[in-house]
Amino acid sequence: MFEEGSPTRPRGVALVTGSAKRIGREIALRLARDGFDLAIHTARSREQALDTAAEVAALGVAAEVFEADLADETQCGELFPRILQRYGRVDAIVNNASAFDYDNVASLSYARLTAHMNVNVGAALVLSRQLHEHLATAGGRRGVVVNMLDQRLWNPNPDYLSYALSKGALELLTRVLALDLAPTLRVVGVAPGLTTGSDLIDDRHLSAMASHALTRQLPTMQEVAATVSFAVSNQAFTGSTLMVDAGFHLNSMRRDFPFL
């Protein structure tokens, strides 16, 4: 556990799944700057998660790493109680962890679709339900769940089909949970577009993609994190999704970014 002091007025405790690296890490850092103590979750990237926790703690809040494979229903179900045992409370969950493997119409299988659904939808449902149950007995406190979606839901293409189907289900779940768990929980979506490179997208490709954005620049991970911060703090925002994609959801794309 990392702890270097607490803000004068702590906001509570936030769990960010998949927060060892990339966007999840930036979200954790932003919520730490907002005054939240952090539960840093990882399935397999323990060393990176420890580095993120140290960075979070350096901002003056508490941070601890929790490992769990969200594809395993038992491990997923045990994650929230472990965080409660450590901190005594949870106020916000950002469902950021995501399965993201390639398939398309020709190659989609039941097994791969199920694997994506378990991590990308099932885990979000389990954790949201547990947060609601916790807050319902917490003397009137209210909380928020932020589900990380994807601009492709408004700009579909056939690549990464199981992933896209699972994110579509998560978007519907966002609206269903916002209705069913109100007023104890607000449930909202944040849908990023392409922000950074990968094994399939180098710097040259990123620059080319930026030239097609309506803003002529790609969103940054820090801008995505700032949007999550807004979603967590705005008490009037629930049941809908903010897109942080430089307008790509308005551009029809026949293929996903790496294949354009």
List the helices and strands and how they pair.
Blueprint: E1 2-3, E2 12-16, H1 22-33, E3 36-42, H2 46-57, E4 62-67, H3 73-87, E5 92-95, H4 110-136, E6 143-148, H5 161-180, E7 185-192, H6 203-210, H7 221-233, E8 241-244
Parallel strand pairs: 2-3, 2-5, 3-4, 5-6, 6-7, 7-8
Antiparallel strand pairs: 1-4
Helix pairs in contact: 1-2, 1-7, 3-4, 4-5
List the keywords.
260 residues, alpha/beta, Rossmann fold, 8-stranded mixed β-sheet, 7 helices, globular
Give a brief description.
This protein has 260 residues and is of the alpha/beta class. It has 7 helices and 8 strands; from the N terminus they run ββαβαβαβαβαβααβ.
Tell me what the structure shows.
Mean pLDDT is 91; it is low at 4-9. The chain is 41% helix and 16% strand. α1 (22-33) links the parallel β2 (12-16) and β3 (36-42). By secondary structure, it is of the alpha/beta class. It has a single domain (2-259), classed as NAD(P)-binding Rossmann-like Domain (Rossmann fold, 3-Layer(aba) Sandwich), CATH 3.40.50.720. α1 (22-33) packs parallel to α2 (46-57).
